[in-house]
Every structure is written in structure tokens, then in C-alpha cells.
Amino acid sequence: MATFLRNSRAAALPAKLSRSWLLASAASEDTFIPALTSEADSVVFDMEDAVPAPGKAEARERVVEALSTGMTAWVRVNGIETEYWADDLAALSKAPGLRGVMLAMTEKPEQVTHTAMRLQAGTPVLALIESALGIENATAIASAPGTFRLAFGVGDFRRDTGASDDPMALAYARSKLVVASRVGQLPGPIDGPTVGALGEELLEACKVTASMGMTGKLCLLTDATDTINRGLSPSESEISWAAELLREHAAGAVVGDGSYLPRLARAQKISSLADSYGLWNA
User: Fold this and answer.
1) Which label site among 76, 151, 178, 244 has the fewest CB atoms less than 10 Å from its CB?
2) Which of 3.20.20.60, 3.30.990.10, 3.40.50.720, 1.10.10.10 is the CATH number of 8-232?
3) Is 58 annotated as a binding residue?
4) Which of 26, 72, 22 is nearest to 46 (CA)?
5) Looking at the whole model, is its pTM more than 0.85?
């Protein structure tokens, strides 16, 4: 499969900055090309939740074939406690198009490290935290050798705890992932999907994500990717503010008070993100 199928903008974006993480079911190869040509910053071929037990082996073969014939993607592998985990990693360790793995049901730091050790050196592991135990161990997981970024499995977490989807009910878990990521010196964590939401409903969900300090979001629909990218990018007003402050600074603006340097740092960060996302001169 030709490499041009990959969204060139997203392919050039470092995964630490990825906003939209699109899960494409490995139950059929028909999902792969639409995902890779979407606006998703990162695409994840899903061999775990999207594939029933009888189809696991075929899904694994399908993913390895795609990643060996020109496609590039992340892959969600089955949890370390399952019978599929070792075979998933053995197969993926030889796939040239593998960008990294998302480890389902991460609950302990050593699970990430053991996963990383079975892959090619330097392959990033994204720890998907989906249970109360995983949330409580998030700081240790974030600091584990091999952990690249944390993600929140909202659906399974809610089933595990009985929590509703109200932002207040999930605030502790989201905050825990944000603080853990900072302690572990990781990029901001990735929020769970808002299943079925598009348009304004999804933008509102992205506001919750951003307000908690999370910088990415999982999704299941290609049509959700552009909305998430917009919802988790600097706004037009933020970009205008940053551009004005940086112009004044370049022209020799004098430090007026103790808030100046923090504001300058924020303007520089907004500038860098806007440039990475192709928004600075848009």
C-alpha cells in the first residue's frame, strides 16, 4: 500500500502534540484507509475492544500486513493479562510501519515496561488507563520506563466505578492523569472519547478536556477528528494575543511587572503550537 495514503500533515506532527487519536477497528481492513486519510493527528488500529475473541488472530495478521506494506499507525494491543498480549507484541515487533502501541487496561508501571521490552528499542508505549486501580497508580505508570503518554479509557472506568459521564464525576480521574503526566514529565494526557458526539456537542466536550489540562482526545469517528483538532488548538483570540505580545517584545517592550515573563512564556507556547498545527499564518 502506498505511503501517500497517510495524511501528510498529521504524519509530520510529533505524537506528543497529537490532539485527535482515531481508533480504527482491525476487524476489517476497510477502516484503515479512511482513517489514514482523515484529519486525525494519530491513527490507532484497534485490535482490542473492537475485535471479538474469535477474530483476534486474523485482526493481528491484518494489522501486520498493513504496517508492512506502506501504512503507518499506532496499534491498540490487548492487555497484559490476556492470552493475546504476547502474540500481539511478537507480531508487531517486526512491523516497519508501527508508530507505537497503546496498551489496554494498564494498571501497573511494570506492565508498560514489560510491553516496551518486547518491541523494537525506542517504540513508544501509550498507557491506556481504564480502572480505579490504574488511576490510583497513574503517577507510577507515568514514571515507568517506556511510558510515552497516558490516555483515559472513560467507558471501562465508568463500568469499573459506577461513575456517570458528568464532568464532575470524572474530574478526579482526569486530574489524576494530568498531575501524573506532569510528575512523569510526559506530554499532556489524552481524554477518552465522547461516543457519538459531533459538532457543537463535541466542541463542548473538548472544552472540558482542555479545561482539565488534557491535550488530546480519543475518537471513534473520522468526522470527529477535525472538530477535536479545532477544540484542542489555541483559539483565534489566543493566537492574536500571542502574536501581539511577541511583536511588542521583539520591539523592545519593557518588563512591567512580575506577570510579564509568565505571559511571555505562554505567548511563546501558543506560537509554537499554532505553528505546529499550521494555524500561525492560517
Assistant:
1) 244
2) 3.20.20.60
3) no
4) 26
5) yes
